[in-house]
Specification:
about 200 residues; alpha+beta; Jelly Rolls; two-stranded antiparallel ribbon; 4 helices; 9 strands; globular
Length: about 200
């Protein structure tokens, strides 16, 4: 995936958020200079995996198997046994017409899906066992349906299952390296390791 394409997707999502009154935090607009200048906040952002991610679930197939997303908050579940931590995350996601995401599930975390845009999207529902295998049991809370067609402002809450992490079915491969065909305008989660290793040029 080219850097110019990633930045164009981020700009498109920022424009979509603006049209629908969705406000992202200030670090959504950071470039590398701002990321380095706000070192303490940047460390927290990177540690929680917050920020931009332009994802291809199949290499070269963004138009059908991709998403643009921004993670605003991500709870830390590692302290739960000590009575601390949070099972909470908040993400803004832009899905283009025809795009889809692979099946995934959170097995302790509750997930709220809210359509804050102007189009419709379909959520396919299924339950899995502790090995991630689909079950025949249906979602009683949503009247035994297996798919929901969500219009603007519609929402659904998915209750937790049996694991502490996010799983994709089947498991996803590692993302391909970014092709740096243009200077980056935005920092993404895939840039954090590189920025951590690279020396600062700030005087």
């Amino acid at each position: 995936m080219k850097r110019s394409f990633i930045d164009a997707r981020v700009e498109a999502m920022l424009a979509l958020c603006d049209r629908h009154g969705v406000r992202l935090p200030p670090f959504a607009l950071w470039g590398e200079a701002e990321f380095r200048a706000n070192a303490d906040a940047a460390r927290l952002v990177a540690a929680r995996g917050l920020g931009w991610n332009v994802v291809e679930f199949r290499a070269g197939a963004f138009a059908t198997d991709g998403l643009t997303l921004f993670t605003l908050r991500m709870g830390d579940w590692t302290g739960l046994e000590a009575g601390r931590g949070r099972l909470y995350a908040e993400k803004a996601i832009m899905s283009q017409d025809g795009q889809r995401a692979p099946h995934h599930y959170h097995v302790v975390k509750t997930e709220d899906i809210v359509n804050r845009g102007g189009a419709r999207f379909v959520v396919e529902l299924f339950k899995v066992d502790r090995n991630g295998e689909p079950l025949k049991e249906r979602f009683r809370a949503v009247k035994d349906v297996t798919a929901l067609d969500l219009g603007p402002s519609d929402r659904v809450r998915l209750e937790p299952g049996e694991s502490l992490t996010l799983y994709f079915l089947p498991p996803l491969g590692a993302p391909l390296p970014i092709e740096e065909d243009a200077p980056s305008r935005f920092v993404t989660v895939r840039d954090y390791e590189r920025l951590k290793r690279a020396p600062s040029t700030t005087p």
